[in-house]
Amino acid sequence: MSRRDDLVPRRPLRGATPLIWQMELRDSLRREQGRASSRRVALYSHDTQGLGHIRRNTLLAAAMVAADPEVDVLLLSGAREAASLPLPERTDLVVLPGLTKDALGGYAARCLDRSLGEVLAIRAAALESLLAAYEPDLLVVDKVPRGFRGELEPALRRARLEHGTRTVLGLRDILDDVSTTRREWQIARTPEAIRTLYDQVWVYADPTVFDPAVEYGWSEAVRTKVRYTGYLGADRERLLPTTKHSSITPSVSRDNAGPFVLGLIGGGQDGAAVADAFAHADFPAGHVGVLVTGPYLPSTHLEHLERLARHRRDLRVHRFVNDVPALARASRATVSMGGYNSVCELMTARRPALVVPRVAPRSEQSIRATHFADRGLLDVLFPQHLDPQALSGWLRAAVSRVAPPSRSIDLGGLGRVPDLVTALLESSVVQGARDVG
Fold first, then answer.
1. What's 94's DSSP letter?
2. Which helix (H) or strand (E) holds 373?
3. What's the rounded Cα separation, in Å, for the pair 371 and 99?
4. How far is it, in rounded angstroms, from Cα 144 to Cα 113?
5. For residue range 191-237, what is the model confidence (pLDDT) as tens digits?
6. DSSP assignment of 118-166, as one string?
7. Closest Cα to residue 7, out of 15, 26, 16, 19?
8. What is the DSSP letter of 421?
9. What is the pLDDT of residues 407-437, one digit of tens each?
C-alpha cells in the first residue's frame, strides 16, 4: 500500500461534509510533502476588453502576498498585455488564448484563426488542467461566476469536489444599469451559480456610494454571502512593484521642470475621442499635458498622437505606464475615463478630476461617475459635450482648485482582503457546497 493510500480516509469524518473531507485529505497530503503552511490562491479574470479585471486581480494578489509570506498566487487571464504588468512576489501569470469584443458587444477570437466556440473549448480545457494541477486553497473569480460563456464551470466544480477549494466571486461596484444587469443575471443563472458554487461574494465597493445588493435586488440567498471590502483604492502604489522603466514621473519633471496635467483613457480601446480632445486642448499656462493612451489604442491612432506631440512642446504621449497612482498624485489635474480602477486611482490621488465616461455598450462608467459626482468628489463631462474647448476651460479652472477630500468614501478594500482570505480558509463553514458534482 502506498503512502498516499495510507492518507486516504476510508469514510468521511463524523459530521463532516464531503467538501470538508476533501479539504482534510488535501491538507494531509501537503503535510506529507512538507508543505503544511503553504496557501495557494488562484485568481481568474476573463479579460475580453481592457485590463481592468486583471489589474484588479493583480492588486488583490499583491495585498495577499504582502500580508502572508506563505501565500502563493496564480493569475489566470485572457489578456496578453497582462504580461507587461509588474507582478507581486510569489505570483505568476498564465495567459489564455485571447478574445475580443467589438463596439456592439459581440465577441470573437482575438488572434487564433478559430471560431469563438473552438477558442472557448481550448480555454476551458486549459483552465481545468491548470487548476487541477495547482490545487488552489482559494479561487477568486472576477465578475462572471461560471467564467466567460461557462468556460470556467468544469474547472470550478472539479476544484471544489476534488481539492476542497474555497471559491469567491469578486464584483466591482457597478455592473451595468439595473434592467440590463437583472436580465443578464437571469439568463446566465447567476444567482443559482452563487448559491451552489460559491462560499462568498466580495463586493469591492462602499455601499454608501452604490449598494449593488439593493440596486439590483439580489435575493437573500445571495446577500448572505456578500462581504463589502470597500473600494480597492488605498495602498495601490505601495503594494505593486515597478520596474526601472515603469515610471514616467521623473521624465516629466526632467523635460519641463514644472507642473503638468494628465490625460488617462484606460486601456485605450474606446478612448480615442478623449485622447484627441486632450491632445488638442490648450493646457494652462506653465503646464505640460501628459497623455497615457493605454495598450489597446490602435497603433495608427497612437502614431497620429505621437506626430502631434512632436509639434507641441507642451504635450507628452506615453502608451503604457505602471505607476498611474503616482502620476495622478503628481499632476495638478486629471482628465480620465470612468473605469473602476481609474476612479479608485483618482480618489487616492486627491487631485481635481474630470471623468468622461463610456456610455456604450455598457453604462457602468456613466453610473459610477454620476454617483461620485453627486458626492462632490469629481466632475463629469458626457461624451456628447466633449471637445478640446471644454477640456481647456475645465483644466484652466481645475489647476487652481483644491481637490475635495476622498475620506467620505471607504477606499480601504486592499487592507481588508487578506483578513477575508484568512477567515474563509480557516472557517469550517462551507457554503454552496452541496451541488459540486
1. E
2. helix 364-374
3. 31
4. 25
5. 999 999 999 999 999 999 999 999 999 999 999 999 999 999 988 87
6. HHHHHHHHHHHHHHHHH--SEEEEES-TT-GGGTTHHHHHHHHHHH--E
7. 26
8. H
9. 689 999 999 999 999 999 998 665 554 444 4
